[in-house]
Design goal:
mainly alpha, about 95% helix
């Protein structure tokens, strides 16, 4: 082989290697660019998710506060309902006793009226 042919072969191999490296390098750059773009998209989604999480956290706190307020009101209403039930039971007992006393007094009044009528001169 001649020296010129060897030089040509070496130059062809170098050109092919250089072109292969440039192609590989361009693909690597394209892949890095795509990965950066994808990373930006995920960052945007993460920021949106963080904002949504904050908003839902605030709503959750608001609902917890309202739930506690309603529970406290329900507890208070329960206490008042028990108090009213006790008072109702006392009033019912008083009503029954008053009714019984009224019945006794009515019977006694009727008895006294009968006795009064029997003693009346004719």
């Amino acid at each position: 082989m001649s020296t010129v042919l060897i030089i040509i072969i070496v130059l062809v191999v170098l050109v092919i290697a250089f072109l292969a490296y440039r192609s590989w390098s361009a693909k690597q750059e394209e892949q890095r660019h795509r990965l950066r773009r994808d990373a930006r998209g995920h960052r945007d989604q993460a920021e949106a998710g963080t904002g949504r999480a904050r908003e839902l956290g605030k709503r959750s706190e608001d609902h917890q506060r309202e739930a506690k307020r309603h529970k406290d009101l329900a507890d208070e209403h329960g206490r008042k309902a028990e108090e009213h039930a006790r008072e109702s039971a006392k009033a019912e007992t008083g009503k029954r006793r008053a009714g019984q006393a009224a019945g006794r007094h009515d019977e006694h009044a009727a008895d006294l009226e009968d006795r009064s009528e029997r003693r009346r001169p004719r």
